[in-house]
Amino acid sequence: MSEQAMKLRGRVVVVLPDNVDTDVIYPGRYLNITDREKTAEHLFELAYPDLRAALQPGDIILGGKNFGCGSSREQATAAVKFSGVGAVVAKSFARIFYRNSINLGLPVVTAQAVEARAGDELEIDLLAGRIANLTTGAVFDAAPLDPRAVELLEAGGLIPYLKRKHSYSGS
Amino acid sequence: MGMTLAEKILARASGRATVTPDQVVVARVDLALSHENADLVRKSFKEIGVARVWDPDKIVIILDHRVPAESEKTATTHKAIREFVREQGIRNFYDVGRGGICHQVLAENGHVQPGMVVVGTDSHTTTHGAFGAFAAGIGATEMAGVWTEGELWFKTPATMRIEVDGEFAEWVSAKDLILYIIGQLGADGADYRAVEFDGPAIRRLSVASRMVLANLSMEMGAKVAFTPVEEIAPDPGAHYERVIRIDATREVAEPQIACPHAVDNVKPLSALGNVPVEQAVLGSCTNGRLEDFEIAARILAGCRVHQRTRLIVIPASQRIYLEAMRLGYIQTMVEAGAMVNPPGCGPCVGVHQGILAAGEACVSSTNRNFLGRMGSKDSRVYLASPAVVAASAVAGRIAHPAEVTA
C-alpha cells in the first residue's frame, strides 16, 4: 500500500452493535474451509444473512465496542477482507481480531465517536487518524495506526512482508 | 519500579531490564501451540517460502477440534498436518487417541513452564497463565510468522489485579466465580489487559480450578491471565491499572449462569426461572477435567438423566478419560444415561457431535454461548459449572445441585 492508499474512501454498508463476536462474523461450522477467498461466502451468515448481498467493494463496516471478540479464527478476518470490505471502523477491537486484520492487510480503525449511518460516504486517513463523513460533513478523530501496523498494511499483510524480508536475507 | 508478572516475563523475553505498559517489544517465543488450524498456519508458512520452521522442538500440534475426523475434508486436513509434522521433524504432535484438548494436553505433558512466552492459535491459550506463563492466543498467519522467526511483537499490556477472599459455598466453584467476574466487568472488561488473580480464595483452589479462571479470562478480552505460582511472582510495588476485590462468600453465594448469547450476560441461578434443556454438555478446555467429573458423578450417582434431556460427557484428554474410568466416574455417568464422546472439543465449537437443532436449549460447562455457537442460530446455550450441568441433566431444566441431591 502506498502513502496514497493509506487514505481510504467508502460507503458505510452497515452499523453494527457492541461485541460482534467471531461466531457471528464467521460461523464455526465453516472452520474447515482454509481457502481464504472462499470464507467470504459465509460472512455474517447466521446473524446478518442479507448483508453479503448488499456489500460493494470498498464498503466500510462500522462497529461498536469489542468488535471481533471471541475465537482466534482467522477466517473471521479473511471473510471480511475477501468480501471486498475496505475497512472496519469500531469503537474498539478484540485484540486477536485486530492483529489478524493487520496481518491479512485489512485496515482496522479505532475511533470512539464516529457518527454515520448506513449509506454515508466516509474518508479515512489511516496515518493521520482522521475520519470525515463526506455525507454529513462531520470530521472525527481516530487512533493513528501503530508504525508496525502501517508497515504491515503497506506490505499487504504479514505474508508478503515476511516473504520479502526472507528473500532479501537469502534464508 | 516493580513489574507485574506480564511485564517481568516480557522484559526477560525481549532482553530488557524493564518494560512498561503500552511499550511495544519483540519477544522470543518459547512454545507455539496449534490444533487443526495448523493446516492454515502451514499454508501461510509455505507462502512465506522458508524451508524449515525455526525450532521444531518448540512447536506443539494437538488435534482436538474434529477428532476423529467426521468428514473427508477434515481427514484431508489431518493428513496434511501429519505430513507436515513429519517433514519438519516436529516431535510434539498429539494425534487422534494420543492426546485430547490442546490446552489440557499441553499442561499435563509438562510443556509449559513458569515464565515462558506461549502463543497458540486458539483464543483459550490464556489457560496456561495458571502455570505462570505469558500465554496468548494469536491468528494462523501470525503463527506462520512465529514458525518462521521464533519471535513476535507484543504491546506490553497494563495489568489488572483481581483479589478474591472468602469461602465458596457448597456447589459454588471457580466457574461461578469467573462467570460472576465476567458479568461484572463485561466482555471487553479486560481487553488488551493482563489479569493477575490472587488472594486467599484463589490460593486454596486446585490447579484445575485455576485453569478455569485463566481460560475464561479470554471471555472478558484478556490478553493473558495468571494465577499464583511459586516460581515467579510480581514484584512488590508493581503497578496495577486497577485492583478489584471480591468477597466470594457474599458476592458469589450461588451458582452463576451465562445466558444467551453473550458470556457477560450473567445471572445468579435463582434469577433464571424455569429453563428446560434438551441437552447438557460436560466437557471442554474450561471444564472437562477430573474434578469436574468427580462432582458430576457425585450428583448423577443413582439418578437418571431426565427423559427430555441428552447428557454428553467429553473427557478433556485420554489421560482424564482413563483416570475417570479407574475412579468409576464414567461408569456412574453412563449408568445415569450419559453418552461419552471422544476426548476433544466436542460440540463446544459447533463442529463435532452434539449439535443443537432450532428451538433447543443446552446447559453447558463450556466457554462460549454466542449465537449459533453449538448449532442452529435458533438454539440457546447457557454456560454453567459442571455441578449445575449434572443437576440440570437430572432435572431436565437448569437446576441447582441442591435440588437433586437433597
Structural account:
Chain A has 171 residues and is α/β, with parallel strands linked by helices. In chain A, 30% of the residues lie in helices and 18% in strands. In chain A, α4 (74-82) crosses α5 (95-104). In chain B, α11 (290-300) packs parallel to α14. The longest helix of chain B is centred in the first third of the chain and has 17 residues, at 72-88. Chain B has three domains: 24-155, Aconitase, domain 3 (2-Layer Sandwich), CATH 3.30.499.10; 159-251, Aconitase, Domain 2, CATH 3.40.1060; 259-405, Aconitase, domain 3 (2-Layer Sandwich), CATH 3.30.499. Chain B is of the alpha/beta class. Classes of the chains: A alpha/beta (171), B alpha/beta (406). Chains A and B meet through α1, α5 and α7 of A and α2, α3 and α5 of B.
By DSSP, the count of extended strands of chain A is 7
Poorly predicted segments of chain A: none
Distance between the termini of chain A: 25 Å
Shape of chain B: globular
Global mean pLDDT of chain A: 93
**Strand fraction of chain B:** 15-25%
* CATH topology call of chain A: Aconitase, domain 4
Question: What would a concise description of this structure say?
Answer:
Chain A has seven helices and seven strands; from the N terminus they run βαααβαβαββββαα.
Attribute tags:
heterodimer; A: 171 residues; alpha/beta; Aconitase, domain 4; seven-stranded mixed β-sheet; 7 helices; 7 strands; 18% strand; globular; B: 406 residues; Aconitase, domain 3; Aconitase, Domain 2; 3 domains; five-stranded parallel β-sheet; 15 helices; 18 strands; 32% helix
